[in-house]
Amino acid sequence: MTRQIELHNPPTLAKAVGYAHGVETRGGRLLFFAGQVAKDKDGRVVGKGDLVAQFRQVCENLRALVAAAGGQLTDVVKLTIYVLDADEYKRHVKAIGGVYRDYFGRHFPAMTLVGVRDLYDAAGGCMIEIDGVACLP
C-alpha cells in the first residue's frame, strides 16, 4: 500500500485558514516528535526575546528531525504549538506565517496553538515549543 495523506475540511465547519481540521493517513510510517525548542545543535537558545526568530529555529529543528527519518516537512500531519504568550504570537502572526511558508510551503496540517504558563526550557529563554506527528513514505 502506498502512503496517502488527505486533508479534511468539511463545509459544516468554519473555513480552515492556515491549518486543516483533520488529516487522514493511510500507509507509511508514523514519526512522533517530541517538543522542539529554539536551541541550536550546541544547545544554545537562538533568538532570545524574539518569537519569530525562535519559530524559525524550531522549524529548522523540525526539518532536521523529519529529514533524519527520511521525510520532509510536507509529511507532517499534526503540529501542536505551545507559546508562553498567545497574544504575542498573534501580534507576530504575519511574520510567523512567512517563516512557516519558508519551511512548509502551502502545506497546512492539523494544528493547535496553546498558550501555556511555563515551558521546560523557559528559564533559558525559550518562548515556544512545537511537537507533532509526520507520516513518512
Mind explaining what this structure looks like?
The protein has one domain (29-136): RutC-like (60s Ribosomal Protein L30, Chain: A, 2-Layer Sandwich), CATH 3.30.1330. Helices cover 26% and strands 30% of the residues. The protein is built from three helices and six strands. Strands 3-6-4-5 form a four-stranded mixed β-sheet. The model has no long low-confidence stretch (mean pLDDT 96).
Total helical elements:
3
CA(first)-CA(last) distance: 10 Å
Helix content: 25-40%
Low-confidence stretches: none
Largest beta sheet: strand ordering: 3-6-4-5
Strand content: 25-35%
What's the number of extended β-strand segments? 6
Global Rg: 15 Å
Fourth-tier CATH superfamily name: RutC-like
What is the CATH T-level topology? 60s Ribosomal Protein L30, Chain: A
Mean pLDDT: 96
Task: Find the structural class using helix and strand composition.
Answer: alpha+beta
Largest sheet geometry: 4 strands, mixed
Counted up, domains total 1
CATH class: Alpha Beta
Tell me the CATH architecture: 2-Layer Sandwich
What shape does the CA trace take? globular
Question: Element order, helices and strands?
Answer: EEEHEHHEE
List key phrases describing it.
single chain, alpha+beta, 60s Ribosomal Protein L30, Chain: A, 26% helix, 30% strand, globular
Helix-strand layout with pairing:
Elements: E1 4-8, E2 22-26, E3 29-36, H1 51-68, E4 76-83, H2 86-91, H3 93-104, E5 110-115, E6 128-136
Parallel strand pairs: 4-5
Antiparallel strand pairs: 1-2, 3-6, 4-6
Summary of the model, kept short:
The chain is of the alpha+beta class and 137 residues long.
